[in-house]
Amino acid sequence: MAARKYYAGIDLGSTMTKAAIADEEGNIIVKVAGPTGAEHRRLANLVMLQAFKEAGLTLNDIGYVVATGYGRVNVPFADCQITELTCHARGVSHLFPAAGTAIDIGGQDAKGLTISSGRLVDFVMNDRCAAGTGRFLEMMATTLGIRLEEMGEISLAAREKVEISNTCTVFAQSEIVALLSQGRPLPDILAGVHDAIASRVVRMVSSLKVRPDVVLTGGVALNRAVVAAITEKLGCPVLVPEEPLFTGANGAALLAPEMARRAASKGEPVRERHLAELRLYEES
Amino acid sequence: MAIYMGIDIGSSATKGVLLKSGRVAAHYLLASGGDYRAAAQSVREELLRKAGLKEKAITATAVTGHNVSNLPFEHKRLADIRCCARGIHFLSPEARTIIDIQALSSRAIRINEEGRVTDFATSEKCAAGSGRFLEMMANILRIDFEEMGPLSLESRSPVSFTTSCAVFEESEVISRIAEGAAVPDILAGVHQSLSEKLAALVHKAGLEECVALSGGAALDEGLVKSLEEKLGVKLLLPQPRLVTALGAAIMAAEAN
Q1: pTM (2 d.p.)
Q2: Alpha helices, DSSP H, located in chain A
Q3: What's the structural domain count of chain A?
Q4: B3 — phi, psi (to 5°)?
Q5: Is the predicted ipTM greater than 0.95, yes or no?
Q6: Percent of chain B surpassing pLDDT 70
């Protein structure tokens, strides 16, 4: 059997599935993302396969696989599951060793974490209400007839930010329809939308002891206007990784060696993993 | 002969009641559309037409619901919560708690034996507790509002939803449809979600029998059944759509 020198992390989010592979030295060598969709298992397999392909590896080169994210129980080839909070803390600290606070805004939830020496200290989370999550932005983009990816850029041209008075995503949607019919410019409406999500998220994390450095992750961190609005409301700089989608998967891959050692010290046998297991799902 | 008019301008419908010598001479309901002022004026004209009266025959008009400026007729503005309480008290004097479900909000109101409001709790921040929620779910399931109740009553094992957010529940409904869940079971689950929100609101204001339901959602038998089960009481349903307009007309009469 070939030496298993690599470690994999897979993060099944509500909207996107992310995979990362790390080498023995703790360098992330490959990152792949794909939509989660309704078929968790199939997509988890496809994203993992793609990561192997890009790294020129097979599942049997991997010493340990850690699954995280809300769909983490649906990864048949994972050796263990770790909560996304722990993985995010690890992933963020890897990129920003001085990070004291991480805010992750995902497709259907948002989390705030405080971190000390790379470890999770405290957290707060919202997965009960679409306001303050990526879903809010998605709904607004649909209503405004623009793509999610262009919201941030358009918003930066705003001259007079509108005030969105509704917190609820459904009511805010009606509100922006009314604003459009009043002839308010798109950038001004978008600036209001970004301000609304930033307020919601900052209110959530304010129940934590927010300490610098503050790092923003998750797909929403790709939106520059949201980053700017959160920066303004927190009153301190907000760091954003180059690829904010992958902090959870990175963290999972980086935690994998530790988990492998722990398993080995308990005398747990190295689990055989079969690519056939993957193909089965791919073909179904 | 004293003639009083009550108009209730709602987000989805505008309702009107005309009282002649203390009896309902005409009532009318119209989709509000985007122009509340025009809706109120249309309701007024239609009530007069139905009763065969001229505008100058009206002794007084009371308007409640949305605060619309520059209405083209003389009127007195009243708070809808009082009008709702007054109308319910007139039709069902035994009612002590009212659940008023509006398009964009809902309310639990406590009233005393004279029909006066003693306490109330409002939910207006979240679509999940409003009539809008039912509308969204009917849309997703591609059924008419009128079908929701009868279909829901056919359910044998209601779907249970894990979220209380209207947006997230919409996604869950789509997933359940994809998994092949029966429409009646989904609807019964939807009704349970809404009932849970409403019950929480009722308990905030305090539950006191008897309980009356007001607002168009009260015509949904599925919601009524689910809410009755959750609260453990039988609900009174006195003219749920028109009761607030009726209350406005009665209060206009009482003020004169």
Answers
A1: 0.87
A2: 40-55, 84-95, 134-144, 151-155, 169-181, 186-205, 224-234, 247-265, 275-283
A3: 2
A4: -125, 125
A5: no
A6: 100
Same domain, B120 and B196: yes
On whether residue A92 sits in a domain, the answer given is no
Asked whether residue B173 is domain-assigned, the answer is yes
Would you say residue B8 has pLDDT above 70?
Answer: yes
Strand-pairing partners, residue B18, are: B5, B26
Q: Is B166 domain-assigned?
A: yes
Residue B33 is given by DSSP the state T
Whether residues B7 and B74 share a domain: the answer is: yes
Contacts of A169 in chain B (CB under 8 A): 127, 165-167
**For residues A103 and A206, what is the distance between their CA atoms, to the nearest angstrom?**
11
| Claim to verify: residue B122 and residue B149 sit in the same structural domain | yes
Query: Torsion-angle region of residue B74: left (phi > 0), alpha (psi -120 to 50) or beta?
Result: beta
| Residue A190 and residue A131 in one domain | yes
Does the structure show a pLDDT above 60 at A191? yes
Among A14-18, A75-79, A184-188, the least confident range: A75-79
Q: How many CB pairs under 8 A join A and B?
A: 36
Pair A19, A91: CB distance under 8 Å: no
**Containing domain of residue B225, as a range?**
93-237
Q: Which domain holds residue A257?
A: 6-87+246-283
Across the interface, do B168 and A135 touch by the CB < 8 Å criterion? Answer: yes
Q: Where residue A15 falls among pLDDT bands split at 50, 70, 90?
A: confident
CB contact burial A101-115 (16+ within 10 A = b; e otherwise): bbbbbbbbbbbbbbb
Q: Are residues B214 and B247 in the same domain?
A: no
Helix B166-178 vs helix B131-140: crossing angle, to nearest 10: 30
Partner residue facing B167 (CB), from A130, A166, A167: A130
A198 and A102 both lie in a single domain: yes
CA–CA dist A209, A193 (Å, integer): 26
Within 8 A of B196 by CB-CB distance, chain A residues are: none
**Per the structure, how many domains does chain B have?**
2
In the structure, what pLDDT confidence band is assigned to residue A212 with cuts at 50, 70 and 90? very high
- Is residue B180 assigned to a domain? yes
